């Protein structure tokens, strides 16, 4: 027997059992959601795996593998489910085969109606404690990080200002870059590298970085957070947007951005928009990568060390 593989399987089984017990003790219902869907998402930075469903009469349906179970989970919320979680495989193309990425990975996603993203941060930290992570976790607004590291105020900076800051710091940018692109270039180059050696919740992302999140009262930021453990990004959580009109506008904006990037544009999920208004205000959701969580808890440095069949093993 390969003892390394057996150890990985045992560690993952124990972690999954503790996760399930954590949520069941808090009144959550575990649900199963589809892997194959017609509308996998609109996020411009994600590339789904596309496929075609063929019926026996040769009728074709365009489809894709999910990048997240989010749409299906929200439909369940709109149908009256209050507290739900799932552990599922998700798929993202144009990802590295190794390091911190794998095209197929496991995601824990959970939602609770009647609570916001601050409550979600609390519950995420409680989950980590149950899984054995006892270190303190800072909570820092993204605006404060930008003020500290690059001396800009996200409350007031515009596209031209971000271009100038990129230029000042020697960050290559393109005239086709959107406000979101410029922000992300700065974040990756000047902000995220400072997270190494720190455990922190980074919260309140600019509105153009929060397509599915409710906005803060001043409408400048999305009620969104990400968790980093020693520089490793683990999850993306937020207070959910339940305004169907606003959500359609954001979907349309993302569709235009995908067109500019020459990426496929999938149909808007009309059932999701129909059910969104039935969700409570507030409602939170969180998507946490279990393979990366496994890395953080056991001190592994590559995602391959947590997988029985990593992508680089399969193709090289």
UniProtKB/TrEMBL annotation:
Organism: Candidatus Uhrbacteria bacterium GW2011_GWF2_39_13
Keyword Oxidoreductase: no
InterPro entries named in the record: Aa-tRNA-synt_II, aa-tRNA-synth_II, aa-tRNA-synth_II/BPL/LPL, EpmA
Record flagged with keyword NAD: no
Gene3D superfamilies: Bira Bifunctional Protein, Domain 2
GO cellular component: cytosol
Keywords: ATP-binding, Ligase, Nucleotide-binding
Domain Aminoacyl-transfer RNA synthetases class-II family profile: 12-310
Lineage: Bacteria, Candidatus Uhriibacteriota
Protein name: Aminoacyl-transfer RNA synthetases class-II family profile domain-containing protein
Annotated GO biological process: lysyl-tRNA aminoacylation
One annotated GO molecular function: ATP binding
One Pfam assignment: tRNA-synt_2
Stretch forming the signal peptide: none
């Amino acid at each position: 027997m390969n003892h390394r593989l057996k150890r990985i399987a045992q560690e993952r089984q124990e972690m999954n059992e503790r996760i399930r017990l954590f949520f069941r003790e808090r009144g959550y219902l575990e649900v199963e959601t589809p892997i194959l869907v017609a509308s996998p998402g609109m996020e411009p930075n994600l590339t789904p795996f596309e496929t075609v469903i063929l019926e026996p009469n040769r009728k074709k349906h365009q489809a894709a593998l999910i990048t997240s179970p989010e749409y299906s989970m929200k439909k369940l919320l709109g149908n009256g489910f209050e507290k739900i979680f799932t552990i599922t495989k998700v798929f993202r193309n144009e990802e590295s085969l190794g390091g911190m990425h794998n095209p197929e990975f496991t995601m824990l996603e959970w939602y609770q109606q009647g609570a916001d993203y601050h409550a979600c941060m609390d519950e995420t930290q409680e989950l980590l404690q149950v899984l054995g992570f006892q270190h303190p976790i800072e909570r820092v607004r993204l605006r404060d990080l930008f003020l500290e590291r690059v001396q800009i105020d996200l409350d007031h900076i515009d596209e031209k200002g971000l271009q100038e800051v990129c230029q000042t710091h020697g960050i290559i940018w393109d005239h086709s870059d959107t406000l979101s692109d410029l922000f992300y270039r700065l974040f990756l180059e000047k902000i995220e590298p400072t997270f190494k050696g720190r455990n922190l919740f980074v919260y309140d992302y600019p509105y153009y970085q929060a397509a599915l999140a409710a906005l803060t009262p001043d409408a400048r930021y999305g009620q969104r957070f990400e968790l980093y453990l020693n520089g490793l990004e683990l999850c993306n959580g937020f207070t959910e947007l339940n305004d169907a009109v606003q959500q359609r506008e954001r979907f349309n904006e993302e569709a235009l951005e995908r067109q500019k990037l020459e990426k496929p544009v999938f149909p808007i999920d009309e059932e999701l928009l129909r059910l969104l208004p039935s969700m409570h205000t507030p409602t939170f959701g969180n998507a946490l990568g279990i393979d990366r969580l496994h890395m953080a808890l056991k001190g592994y440095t590559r995602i391959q060390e947590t997988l029985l069949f990593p992508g680089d093993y399969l193709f090289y």
